Automatic annotation (TrEMBL):
Gene Ontology terms describing biological process: carbohydrate metabolic process; purine ribonucleoside salvage
Lineage: Bacteria, Pseudomonadati, Pseudomonadota, Gammaproteobacteria, Lysobacterales
Enzyme Commission number(s) of this protein: 5.4.2.2
Alpha-D-phosphohexomutase alpha/beta/alpha domain sequence ranges: 42-182, 213-316, 325-440
Protein name: Phosphoglucomutase
Matches recorded under Gene3D superfamilies: Alpha-D-Glucose-1,6-Bisphosphate, subunit A, domain 3 (3.40.120.10), Alpha-D-phosphohexomutase, C-terminal domain (3.30.310.50)
Annotated ranges, domain Alpha-D-phosphohexomutase C-terminal: 488-538
Amino acid sequence: MSAARSPLAGKPATSVPPVDVERLVAAYYDERPDPSIAAQRVAFGTSGHRGSSFAASFNEAHVLAITQAICEHRATAGISGPLFLGIDTHALSKPAMDSALEVLAANGVEVRIAAGGEYTPTPALSHAILAWNRGRTSGLADGIVITPSHNPPEDGGFKYNPPNGGPADTGVTAAIQQRANALIAEGLRGVKRVPIERARAASTTREHDFLGAYVDGLGALIDFDEIRAANLRLAVDPLGGAGVHYWPRIAERWRIALDVVSEQVDPTFAFMSLDWDGRVRMDPSSPPAMQRLLALRERYDVAFACDTDHDRHGIVARSVGLMPANHYLAVMIDYLFRSREGWRADAAVGKTIVCSAMIDRIATRLGRRLHEVPVGFKWFVDGLCDGSLGFGGEESAGASFLRRDGGAWSTDKDGIAPALLSAEITAREGRDPGQCYARLEQELGAVYTDRVDAPATKEQKARLAKLAPAEVTAGTLAGSRIVAVLDHAPGNDAPIGGIKVIAEHGWFAARPSGTEDIYKIYGESFRDAAHLGEILAEAQQLVDHTIAA
């Protein structure tokens, strides 16, 4: 039914040849994208433009053109404050940062880069944008995060965050994408650029202490007094990512007993274990990729990891091991809306359309409105900004939530905050998050969840994205009556880029990935695991028929 699990899954990354970093970086400068080939054009998915220099899909030309397009967007939109610029630890991130700086300096944009060449997690950059803009009506800041998130070592990524601090909406990214592709097609003649030495020495290029500002502010988000009082044993694996130096500072600043498993940074990520498909992927919610942290399960009350740009979390509870992302989202929502007295009484629960129905049940019990949106964190940004959303979460282990006083903390995904919250939950509830989820199942009923990932070409993904409700002619799903077929999200009526079929005793959703050449089928049964298998099998038949047409 699903793509076959590689026999290398969970094995050390040294079981496969490492990426040739020197050749990868050389290809970044040497390869020229062909604008007539769709796979080599700038394409903003759910989290910016991503690709590999080996495939001519993430190269110097892409970054120069995108950055020039962003400069022109800033001028048109009247954004005149500083642009915060951060990178993760992927091999292509540093070259891409140099390229971006060359263009930003030539355009006279005031840029803030991390002090001392430090890496910058996505949430730290979002936090910096919000802090600068708080109380301002002009001179607003925005930002660029150079990261392909949890993608393999050979990938690069480039994401724009406007003054609201979160991922740019589709209208903005479409305009940037169109202009960038036009610049590439014109041979970059419209790109302003100065040498990197001049760009770094420019008066408009300044340093910013992302690390200190983010870490010092965490007390407004997390109850560290509660964690200290419980005397918990905690561990974190930064996975060689952008937050690698944040965790020791967090432990020191907030006086918590937190062991950092490793501070190693290696652009080949050879310390990882291989993901389900035998590839190196820094996904903290994937059991095959999390073998190093799982091996420490018995030594700690709770342990956690974050992906390369630290916008995703993975929670290892002593009671259950690595928690499925949906389970921990449910635990966070239940805990936060019961404990955060400073939040608005009408603050809603935000989830994407592929998140668990357990969240629906929790929202109902809490008496909170459910705000269900398409996949993509951009749909939560406005609500987190104004406090009308207390929490926004994605099935792929991305989430952000408000400060304890109800103010905005980060309007992009924040892996660090949910990780630390797992310690607060364990301290205050007297049970780890795995035990908290077991109690939710006892009280609200069990759900059985799984996801199918399989390779798909860009053409196949496009066909899947256009699947319409009328194409679903069945009256039942795995023997259960179908009650709704959706291609728009209930929370905001935005297209979901796929389809969701809801039956009395389960559901499935099918959509193409916005970041990789795969498609995803999400399914859930309210009966048992066998019934879930039937749901996914029927969903698979529908998808196979659709993308083969």
